[in-house]
Amino acid sequence: MASVKSALSYASANFAESVQDLASFIRFESIGTDTKYKRQTAACAGWLAKHLKQIGLEHVQVFATKNHPVVYADWIRYPSKPTLILYGHYDVQPVEPIQEWVRAPFKPIVSGNYIYGRGASDDKGQLLAHVKALEAFLKTQRQLPVNVKCVFEGEEEMGSPNLQNFLHTHRDLLKADVAVLSDMAIMAKDKPSLTYALRGSLSVELEVRGQGVDLHSGNFGGAVHNPLQVLCELLAKLHDASGKIAIPGFYASVKDYEQQERAYMARYGPTDKEILQNARAAKGWGEEEFTAYERTTIRPSLSINGIVGGYQGQGVKSVIPSKASAKLNFRIVPNQDPYVVEKLFRQYIKKLTPATVTTHVHANLHARSYEIGVRHPVLQAGKLAYARGFGVAPVLTRIGGTIPVLSLFEEELNIPSVLLGFGLPDDRIHAPNERFYLPNFLKGIHTCIWFMAALSKYKLSAKKTGKAAVVSEP
Amino acid sequence: MASVKSALSYASANFAESVQDLASFIRFESIGTDTKYKRQTAACAGWLAKHLKQIGLEHVQVFATKNHPVVYADWIRYPSKPTLILYGHYDVQPVEPIQEWVRAPFKPIVSGNYIYGRGASDDKGQLLAHVKALEAFLKTQRQLPVNVKCVFEGEEEMGSPNLQNFLHTHRDLLKADVAVLSDMAIMAKDKPSLTYALRGSLSVELEVRGQGVDLHSGNFGGAVHNPLQVLCELLAKLHDASGKIAIPGFYASVKDYEQQERAYMARYGPTDKEILQNARAAKGWGEEEFTAYERTTIRPSLSINGIVGGYQGQGVKSVIPSKASAKLNFRIVPNQDPYVVEKLFRQYIKKLTPATVTTHVHANLHARSYEIGVRHPVLQAGKLAYARGFGVAPVLTRIGGTIPVLSLFEEELNIPSVLLGFGLPDDRIHAPNERFYLPNFLKGIHTCIWFMAALSKYKLSAKKTGKAAVVSEP
């Protein structure tokens, strides 16, 4: 306990420096999805590796992948204590629409209790909370409570396309008992929550190709089937009037949850009103028989993320584009297989495609959903850590987002993961003016300190996570 | 006749220089719709004014408007001969999608029988055919066959927003008997056509606004009505299954054409096959009871020109955009009023808008359709000019495009217009790799020479054009 106390004190006393380090981290334009930023993304990885070395981690390595590197470091001392993988990602989302940012996305600024910048919350700030917890132990004790291996990737926002191969190739190096990651929001500033389930994700691009060239809509309007029109007509058929996804067979394998689980969700989860407030939405939408919390966690969704086709500039352009495409994102739930969903989508689109055009589907992300048993010892360690770090016991929550690495850790390393989120629902992740609430950055560092301390008391060995979650009030 | 012959010879002998002048003209990035190009557009006007002065026109003036200037010049000598307005536009369409251009759009190049570049056909090449005809007369005779006033504007591609005011303000300066303009395609290389009717145009922007901020489609997918989805659902309701526009009341005032007119169109107009070949479309689409030629001329159309919303970049971005909008373009036909169409559209959208979002309609172009009586003397002069310039009599045609200036000339100056097109259907106007067929550039100059010569024999006075066109085989 003495070691924990001095680590906590160190973290508090050096918090201003931690904020400065976070600002330095945000300054890198590590937009992993856009090849234009490859060099800046690599520079970001280099900075992170150097920082890990500076705080006292060992075997620091930047592993090249086909795209953006994985930053690795470890500290291994105890044969009989658990080994913890710290996972995080240093890549960030694109910044469009850039004109809606009040400040430049990569010039972080502290204003009030927030630090603003792309990646502040997702995931640079949350990743750094763990790093700062390691620093606190190493600077005050010259040791950590458990064995630690850091795995920080640069491709999370593009669906971690090379991570599975990395984990598989280095499965001996990465042998561990449990992984921890922080890449989500808690329910509110003083209401920590421990995520035990996430939705999976399937991203597809649907392209409609019509005539061979762009046409003048004056000269040709009325004679050809505008691909942009066909695209809209197809997209309009993806949902029915009740808000359900209209793809035949889509709901066939969706898991039904027991009343006990839904009652727990209703009691401890966010209300419809809270979710709509966070979304700044006047009205909700979707399957009437489910709450907004359920619709975003235990129910699948399908979102149009963007449409490309025709003229998007200022003013008018009388064009019938030769092709048009839409970026679509499914969020899928337990028992749904992303590859089956892709197949059903392809069949449906094929059936709907009129003879005047051709359609083409390209899938670029397949991630299963994730659930961990609520009585799992690592989840108990997480609960304890939050209770100490935030001074209040966490609620067990589901979130609607996806962290593909969770199922990869399970598949490749056969270990469970625990998710310690330090973000807030209004952090505007993936949107303009992203920010991170600084008091939770410090509480996050403290929580990470407590988590390692709690974990050091468990005897763990690699085992399967309990996929069939039994929820009871903790 | 001697004067015509020497002018024709001059035009042929100096054609290489004319092509060079056209290349110089194309090099100006005169994208009038985009404020970024304001300076280049002004420079283009300056070049044109200088060129008019060099060839011997008088009273050359660059009139400022609220946006892009009007280039004016005249040559007035004969109290008893007709005065002809030469109208053209030096502004061009945007170049997106830029990556589909094989060569840079503003670095014109001659390859085979074509000159390539944005504006080569629409309208710089066709405008210059008239200028080169003036030059041929002035260099060989030191005089023109008729009085001439040049009115070259820089805002045609944005709907000529300041032209009406310009014509109204300068209606004494612009007093004339007839206008001629060349801003369209003939039917084929050796098949000239004389356009006697055009559709009108109404451009509207439809915006759907949902929640106040962009959201993560993982965290919020399923809880809010995605504005991009709503937009698609609205756009999908603009046409019915038969290809008709589904806006209630839309067809109420659409003019019915007599069998005589439709028979003439069927006999001399392009076939469905030809139109689809020009469009590089495998299959046609639209109102079954009309031919493709009819569907693009005497029937209205509604095209989606572009959709703005969500993420359009490389890769994926899990976003539910807070708003989305579509650029729409109606082409309207005789007896339809663009303001009535706008009203009907607004009513329909209002009725369809779900309670989860708000919709906003912005109209930015209202142009009526245009028809001139086929027995009108200026049309006869045009027929003669084509017959001599191309060596073959023209077919009288309708086109689906819009030249808003036609109804403005009628309303403000009370004069008819004749349309001598020199473009080809596959010039790719408004699309990547626009080009102009050089043999028709020369034939166009010759046709303009013949047109002025023919016109010099008519006694004309300002009169209303016959709006109710009686079509009979010429």
UniProtKB/TrEMBL annotation, chains A, B:
<dbReference type="Pfam" id="PF01546">
    <property type="entry name" value="Peptidase_M20"/>
</dbReference>
<dbReference type="Pfam" id="PF07687">
    <property type="entry name" value="M20_dimer"/>
</dbReference>
<dbReference type="InterPro" id="IPR011650">
    <property type="entry name" value="Peptidase_M20_dimer"/>
</dbReference>
<feature type="domain" description="Peptidase M20 dimerisation">
    <location>
        <begin position="196"/>
        <end position="355"/>
    </location>
</feature>
<dbReference type="InterPro" id="IPR051458">
    <property type="entry name" value="Cyt/Met_Dipeptidase"/>
</dbReference>
<keyword id="KW-0645">Protease</keyword>
<protein>
    <submittedName>
        <fullName>Dipeptidase</fullName>
    </submittedName>
</protein>
<keyword id="KW-0378">Hydrolase</keyword>
<keyword id="KW-0479">Metal-binding</keyword>
<dbReference type="InterPro" id="IPR002933">
    <property type="entry name" value="Peptidase_M20"/>
</dbReference>
